[in-house]
Write a structure and sequence with these properties.
Blueprint lengths: L3 E16 L4 E17 L3 E5 L6 H8 L7 E6 L2 E2 L5 H9 L1 E4 L13 H11 L6 H14 L16 H12 L6 E5 L7 H18 L2 E5 L3 H7 L2 E6 L2 E7 H6 L4 H8 L6 H5 L29 H5 L5 E4 L2 E3 L13
Parallel strand pairs: 3-8, 3-9, 6-7, 7-8
Antiparallel strand pairs: 1-2, 1-4, 4-5, 9-10, 10-12, 11-12
């Protein structure tokens, strides 16, 4: 059995821009542009970056919720983008997703039993409605809710409770891989802690593998094993979490980490603060996409696009200036 559960290679996703009376394609939004990622079995890969950098689109393409423009995705050694319907359904059962907005992702006309039980019926995992309800009760109790809430509707729950329902639904088909797309960002801090602890417990209990998308770097460092940083549709750095947080090599990663507020005035002076706005993904800059905001950019950065290369063992960076002999590694 391979240590890599899901592997994406050179993924691209371009959305057409229509214009004119005939609605012809006049350009493309480069939402995902040459992304390659590996997610190890039983581990958590964190995906971070500014809003609009392509994190959620990458997750949807990797799970085949939307078809890629080009690239390949293999899941447990099988082609996830296969056109074989039987194989696609088999692989689809192994993958599920927890979305950012728990209320928007739940059908308000369905009660908890129906919401959690729907995947079981779709994949023929239960024989009848009674078995479906029993299994749904078991799952919501595992996710911190009570059996007597099984016939309530989404509007009768708080945000944290709705997210627990979403997690229970994501686990209903016994998946091995779960995407958490900003699963805790809309919740109060105390509720965030409960949901994060729940995800960690379920991971250990059920042997799950996660792709965890978040803006909160402290949460990413707590729950993730590996971290990939995205900027304008590309992965600019990826490494083991402690290596990346303690020794960031890409200026963008340094800027993200330094953006967190601190109370020490002396520490504030040495921070790299990002300036300017992220460029439009419909017209990305030539050369290195970060050079328009990078304080260390050279003429080469504006002319030539860097490749993602391994600077240190397991530490990949898309930058010409990144070197292994930076002061942190001296």
């Amino acid at each position: 059995m391979s240590d890599v559960l899901l592997k994406a290679e050179h993924l691209k996703k371009y959305f057409p821009i229509k214009g004119g009376m005939l609605q012809r394609t006049v350009g493309h939004v480069h939402a995902v542009d040459d992304v390659s990622l590996e997610i190890r079995r039983g581990k958590v890969l964190g995906l971070v970056g500014e809003s609009g950098c392509g994190k959620s689109t990458t997750a949807r393409v990797m799970t085949n919720l939307i078809p890629p423009t080009s690239g390949t995705v293999t899941f447990d050694g099988e082609d996830l983008l296969t056109k074989d319907k039987a194989l696609a359904k088999k692989l689809r059962r192994q993958i599920n997703m927890v979305f950012q907005d728990p209320f928007g992702s739940l059908d308000p006309r369905m009660n908890v039993a129906e919401l959690v039980g729907e995947p079981m019926v779709a994949y023929n995992l239960v024989k009848n409605k009674k078995e479906m309800t029993e299994r749904a009760v078991e799952l919501i109790e595992k996710c911190g809710l009570f059996a007597d809430q099984i016939y309530r509707f989404p509007h009768q729950f708080s945000g944290g409770q709705r997210q627990r329902i979403c997690i229970a639904r994501a686990l209903a088909a016994n998946p091995s891989f779960v995407v958490c797309d900003e699963a805790v960002s809309a919740l109060d801090v105390s509720i965030q802690a409960q949901i994060i602890n729940l995800l960690c417990d379920l991971k250990d209990e059920m042997g799950l593998t996660y792709l965890f998308i978040s803006h909160d770097l402290s949460v990413v460092r707590f729950i993730c094993d590996d971290v990939a940083v995205m900027y304008l549709g590309q992965v600019v750095e990826k490494a083991e979490k402690n290596e990346l947080f303690d020794h960031p090599l890409h200026p963008y990663t340094q800027g993200l980490l330094d953006a967190a507020p601190v109370f020490d005035a002396e520490e504030q002076k040495d921070r790299l603060l990002l300036e300017g706005d992220i460029p439009s993904p419909s017209n990305p800059p030539k050369g290195c996409r970060f050079h328009t905001r990078c304080p260390y950019a050279t003429e080469r950065c504006a002319m030539e696009e860097p490749e993602l290369r391994e600077v240190l063992p397991g530490h990949f960076v898309r930058c010409f200036e990144a070197k292994a002999d930076v002061p942190e590694h001296a």
